[in-house]
Specification:
This protein is an alpha+beta fold. The protein has helices at about 5-10, 40-50, 90-100, 175-185, 225-235; strands at about 15-20, 25-30, 60-65, 75-80, 85, 110-115, 115-125, 125-130, 135-145, 150-155, 160-165, 195-200, 205-215, 220, 245-250, 255-260, 265-270, 275-280.
Length: about 290
């Protein structure tokens, strides 16, 4: 172990970490209210600890810290598994809300601070509802050309940027092939974008099926909260669904999105799982 990693390990070896999951997205969470773990150390920990097979494995790592504004109970730093910092994560937001409620740190409902803005959270046992930041930069009917094909797409930022593409049979969508081409497309530089493939299912009840290629994870994930919210919002703006809509994720779990025209608000609701808590061993960050 090099000197920097050993120094980092000494900081966290006696500190409890928590693992929570929401709709197939899993996260490693540290309480960092004393600020022991720096931003750069957070990036290192994310890359080391989120590795599947060799470490804890997760889609992201979250540091919970003191807020900078009085209206927030706490703040977070959110890191994707590649170590990049993200502004927002819907399912991650639901996990941290469940954690702080379960630990008795804060009583629901409350607000917490993210780079995307203040997030409202309401915890009812395992089920958690969060209000995302107001969607911005809506662009419908974008024609995107790639070396794979031409696509009619839609864009909105629900805390992080998302492209939505409708697909007739979502099970056949080549997510891993098309996702990177749009994620890094010149239209969305320099930040890039997440890419959602959505199928509208009509029957006794309309709902959406969704698969997401996530920026920062650089792969398809089992679910994406901000992606589900973006897909529901775009579908509503196109007149395809009502203000409340369910989305079936790749994990098989259902997320519910509520849209309020007044104030341009989106609420995301779904189940969470408190998986375990533990301590880090040296081998986890080698």
């Amino acid at each position: 172990m090099d000197e920097n990693l050993d120094h980092l390990f000494q900081k966290i070896k006696d500190q409890t970490f928590y693992k929570l999951s929401a709709s197939g997205n899993d996260f490693i969470i540290f309480l960092n209210f004393e600020g022991k773990i720096t931003l750069e150390e957070g990036k290192i920990l994310a890359k080391k600890l989120c590795r599947p097979k060799f470490s804890i494995s997760a889609d992201g790592l979250i540091l919970l810290e003191k807020p900078s504004i009085s209206s927030a109970s706490f703040s977070w730093k959110f890191f994707n598994s590649d170590g990049s910092e993200a502004e927002m994560c819907g399912n991650g937001a639901r996990c941290v809300a469940r954690l702080v409620e379960d630990l008795g740190l804060f009583k629901s409902p409350f607000y917490f601070e993210t780079k995307a803005g203040l997030i409202y959270a309401e915890v009812k046992g395992e089920r958690v509802k969060v209000a995302l930041t107001s969607p911005i930069d809506l662009k419908l009917n974008l024609v995107i050309r790639t070396d794979y094909d031409w696509f009619m797409a839609h864009f909105v930022n629900t805390g992080v940027p998302h492209v939505v593409i409708f697909w007739d049979d979502i099970e056949s969508a080549p997510v891993e092939k098309i996702g990177p081409k749009i994620r890094y497309h010149e239209i969305f530089k320099p930040a890039g974008t997440n890419v959602n493939f959505v199928e509208l299912v009509e029957g006794d009840k309309k709902y959406l099926k969704i698969r997401t290629y996530e920026r920062g994870v650089e792969a398809e994930t089992l679910a994406c909260g901000t992606g589900a919210s973006a897909s529901a919002y775009v579908s509503y703006k196109l007149g395809l669904v009502d203000k409340k809509v369910d989305l079936l994720t790749k994990s098989g779990e259902i997320l519910t999105v509520y849209i309020e025209d007044e104030g341009n608000k989106i609420y995301l609701e779904g189940d969470t799982r408190f998986v375990f808590e533990g301590r880090i061993k040296k081998e986890a960050i080698l």
